[in-house]
């Protein structure tokens, strides 16, 4: 760290302590050339993740927006909001850990699905229907089968409900209900 007075590059640390409720470390330093004392702060760098949307537009990753979308598709599934919040936080941490700082909305959708598949089948199907833009019953059936195969491969004994009531809602405009039978 350059000394603000003489621009010398070496300083020694006199004191380090936690600051901003643990979010940074404050260091008291002394220039090894002119003995000027100054303070530095060390913080974690949070990288902005850029999401590339379906239409090619870019926007920065927004945790609360993702959470709102997931909460909407998980309405009346009995999943606690805190559980969904934990999912979004997990995704955020995973994205921060990636070397790439750009991700497509489709990739995010797949990550969400992989998390939801372990929580609720109905939530999984609903979320898939919105983000994969299901066109008809065929898409629901294919996704249900895919989910079933995943479970079979993992050796789960759980089976899908005989009949799943799935409501598909997009932007509050187009609302229809599909009844899917295995
Ligand atoms: Zn100095």
Task: Describe this protein's structure.
By secondary structure, this protein is an alpha+beta fold. It has 2 domains: 11-43; 50-181, no CATH class. Helices cover 38% and strands 27% of the residues. It has 5 helices and 8 strands; from the N terminus they run βββββααβαααββ. It has helices spanning 63-73, 81-97, 105-116, 121-131, 137-154, and strands at 11-19, 24-31, 37-43, 50-52, 58-60, 102-104, 163-170, 174-181. Helix 1 (63-73) crosses helix 2, helix 3 (105-116) packs antiparallel against helix 4 and helix 4 crosses helix 5 (137-154). The model is unreliable at 156-182 (pLDDT under 50).
Shape: elongated
> What is the H/E order?
EEEEEHHEHHHEE
Secondary-structure-based class equals alpha+beta
Rounded to an integer in angstroms, the radius of gyration calculated over CA atoms is 24 Å
Instruction: Find the count of extended strands (DSSP E, 2+ residues).
Output: 8
Q: Which oligomerization state do the chains in this entry correspond to?
A: single chain
Ligands in the model, by name, code or SMILES, are: zinc ion
Distance between the termini: 65 Å
Largest sheet: 3 strands, antiparallel
Strand coverage percent: 25-35%
Poorly predicted segments: 156-182
Approximately how much helix is present in the residues? 25-40%
Counting structural domains, the number is: 2
Q: Total number of helical segments? A: 5
Whole-number average pLDDT?
81
């Amino acid at each position: 760290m350059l000394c603000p007075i003489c621009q010398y590059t070496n300083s020694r640390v006199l004191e380090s302590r936690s600051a901003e409720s643990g979010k940074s470390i404050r260091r008291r330093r002394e220039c090894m050339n002119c003995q000027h004392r100054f303070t530095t702060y060390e913080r974690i760098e949070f990288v902005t993740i850029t999401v590339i949307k379906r239409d090619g537009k870019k926007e920065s990753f927004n945790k609360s927006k993702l959470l709102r979308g997931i909460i909407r598709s998980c309405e009346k599934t009995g999943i606690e909001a805190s559980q969904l919040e934990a999912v979004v936080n997990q995704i955020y941490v995973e994205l921060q850990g990636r070397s790439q700082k750009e991700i497509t909305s489709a990739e995010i959708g797949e990550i969400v699905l992989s998390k939801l598949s372990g929580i609720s089948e109905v939530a999984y199907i609903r979320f898939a229907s919105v983000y994969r833009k299901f066109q008809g019953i065929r898409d629901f059936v294919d996704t249900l089968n895919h989910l079933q195969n995943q479970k079979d491969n993992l050796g789960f004994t759980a089976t899908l409900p005989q009949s799943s009531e799935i409501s598909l809602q997009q932007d509050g405009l187009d609302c229809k209900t599909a009844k899917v039978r295995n």
